[in-house]
Fold this sequence. Notes:
The chain is an alpha+beta fold. The protein has 4 domains: 1-36 and 56-95, ZPR1, zinc finger domain (N-terminal domain of TfIIb, Single Sheet), CATH 2.20.25; 100-232, Jelly Rolls, CATH 2.60.120; 267-322, ZPR1, zinc finger domain (N-terminal domain of TfIIb, Single Sheet), CATH 2.20.25; 330-464, ZPR1, A/B domain (Jelly Rolls), CATH 2.60.120.1040. The protein is built from 14 helices and 24 strands. The chain has helices at 36-47, 147-159, 162-168, 170-187, 227-232, 238-241, 243-248, 267-272, 340-343, 366-369, 376-390, 400-417, 458-464, 476-488, and strands at residues 22-27, 59-67, 73-81, 87-93, 101-108, 117-120, 124-128, 133-135, 143-146, 193-199, 205-206, 218-223, 275-280, 287-296, 302-309, 316-322, 330-337, 346-349, 354-357, 362-364, 372-375, 423-429, 435-436, 449-454. The protein has a 5-stranded antiparallel sheet. Strands 20-19-22-17-24 form a 5-stranded antiparallel sheet. A hairpin with a 5-residue loop joins strand 14 and strand 15 (302-309). The relative contact order is 0.09. Keywords: Metal-binding, Zinc, Zinc-finger.
Amino acid sequence: MDGTPKKPIFRDLTAEDPEPEATEIESLCVNCMKNVKFYLFAKIIVKFSLQFDVLFAPGTTRLLLTKIPFYREVILMSFECEDCGYRNNEIQPGGEISDRGCKIILEVKTPQDLNRKVVKSDHSSIKIVELDFEIPSQSQKGEITTIEGILDRSIKGLEQEQTERRKDNPDIAKQIDDFCDSLRQLKDGEKPFTFILEDISGNCHVENPNAPAADPQMTVSRFLRNEEQNHQLGIYTKAEVGKEKSKESDYGGNFLLKMLEEDEWPIEDLFGEVMQFPTLCPECGSPCETNMKMTNIPHFKEVVIMATVCDVCGSKTNEVKSGSGIEEFGVRIEVKIEGKADMSRDVLKSDTCGLIIPEIDCEVGPNALGGRFTTVEGILVAMKKQLSDGGDIFVDSTDESTKMKFDGFIGTLEDIIAGKKQVTLILDDPTGNSYVQSLAEGDKVDEALKITKYTRSFDQNEELGLNDMKTENYGEECEEQKEAESVKS
Length: 489
C-alpha cells in the first residue's frame, strides 16, 4: 500500500481536483481504418529493412469518468487519430440502468427553447411531430448537446452526398433539400414544434430552465419496458438465462444472489435480522456495503430500511421501501408548516411519491429524493442540499438571470427551514405508501394535516404496471387460448 488516499471513481470536475485520472487506449480509427497493430507491424518491417510505404499511426481514445449535476454518472470519451486527424466525442451512462424508460415531450415555442441542454444515450430516439421526422435509437452515439445542435446535426447528415445525389437522382435530392429547409426554419425559431425524446434505458435529460419549479412546456413520464426492450439493454430474467443452469449451482447459475426458498426466512426472522450485501456507492461508484432491515412504523405498516456508507467518498444514504406492496388507493397528504413542531413530524416518503410546495411554485418528482424515512425538516434540508451540492447545471453556459433565480430559491428554502416562512408541504403518492405523523392526541383531529385518498388514473396505473397485472384466475385465459388454438387446428 502506498498510502495514497482513495478517490471516488466518478468525481465532480472542480478546481480542487484539476487533473482527474483519464484512461488512454490506443484504438482503431473508423475513418482511415488504421490502428496500433498496423503501426507495430510497420516498425517490424522497417527494423528488418523491408520495403514499406506508409507508417500507420495509432488513434487514441481518452476515457473520463465524471458526474453531471442533477443527472447521473457518465463516461466521456474522446478519440483522435494522429494520422488523418479524425476526431470524435461521445458520452455513455456510467451508472446503473434505470428500472423504467423515460419519455420527454417538449413544446418548443421560442428561440430560447432551442438552447435547452439535452443529454441523450445510444438508446435515445428523437421525434419531431410536425415534420414526421424521427432519429431512431442506436443510430447515433450518446452526447451532450442542445435542441439546436440536434437539428443542425440532422441537417448536415441529410446534406451529405447531396452533390452526387443531384446528378443521379435529382427528384430525391430536391425532396431532401426541401426537408432540410423545413428543419432550418425550426432551427431558426420561425415555427413552434413538438420535440419528443424517448429512451428505454431512462438515461436521457432535457434542461428545465424553470427548475426547481415544474416546466409548463415539458412533460416527463416513466414507463415499464417490455421483454424486447429489456433484451436490447442486455437485461434477462432468471427463466430466460436458463432453467437448467439454475439447478446446477446453489447460487442459481449465472446469478450472484441466492434465491430464497419458500418459508426459508419467516417474517419474524426478517424483523430481527440486519442483512448486508455488496453494492456500488450511488455518488462515486466505488464498491461498498448496504445494510438492510425490516421494521414496523406505528399506525402505518412494515417498511424496509436500507443504509449505505461509502469509505471512499464518505457518502451516507438511506432509502425506504414499502414492505407490503401497493395500496388500493393513492394518497395525497397536505401538512401546514407553521412552527418547529411541524418541522419535527416524522415523514415516510416512498420512491413513488412526489413533493409540492405551492407557495414557492416548487415541484419535486418522485425520483429526485428517492424513498426515505425522515422528518419534515429533513425533507427540506435534503432538497436544499441536493440543489446546493450539485450547483448550477452547465455553469459555464447559465445566464445571470437563471443564476439569480436559483440563488433566490435556495434562500427561500433556508427561510422555510428557519421557520421564517409558512408553507404547505404536499406529498402525492399514487401507491399509497407514504406517511406523515399526526401531532394530535387520541381521537382528536390534527387541523394542520389533511389526508386524502383517491382512485388512481389509468396513466398512473400504467406507469406502475398495474393495468396488465392480473392476480386472480390468471390461468383461465391461457386455457381458453389453448382450447381455441386446438379447435382451429
